[in-house]
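Section handout 9: paired folding examples.
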Amino acid sequence: MKKLKMRRIDLKDQAGQLELDNLMSALGNQGNVVSPKGRELTKAVFGEALSPLQVVERVCSDVRTNGLDSVLHYTKQFDKVDLTHANIRVTLAELREAHANAPPKLLETVRRIKQNIYAFQVGLVQRDAVQSL
């Protein structure tokens, strides 16, 4: 098994706190870290550099306003896939083929994730609620 390399930061002294501050600044604890390639793509699509949150807000707003046309537009811009109203739907035959060709480990993982989500959601349901009539 490959050995895990992990940086240790000792917070007992000021140097450790400075190292942690620098790390947090580099990682962007608000989810605002954008790679140079990502920044380039954002500028190409929106004409300006945007934070990830601004990109999501803009895309969601456009999709809310323009629906599928915006989905198709952003799919082409971000994913370089040219979908149309005619070819966006996956046929039953395509689904069956994809399922047949999927690695068993992937299917097992997807099923486990599905079960975990289901169990979590069921856990949110109030079971002890009583309503008197």
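Moving on to protein 2 of 2.
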Amino acid sequence: MLKFFIKDSGSGIPKEMIDDIFKSFNKYEDASQSFVPGIGLGLTISKKMVNVLGGEIWVDSVVGQGSVFSFIIPFYSTKSKKSN
């Protein structure tokens, strides 16, 4: 398995919003942010791609401290044989 972590130092995401951020056209904006660019598809697309590859994606977040987005995907090693 390959495991990836993406960490930010943003405002964090409240626990009650975590499931919603992976839904289409959902964005989390808090009162301290006047404008957050995007249309709310990035995490939806990321989740679908990770799922297609047989993996999982999740987020751990603390309001006021930031978030860590993580995903794992299977990795299969193949050994190539030299042909004579």
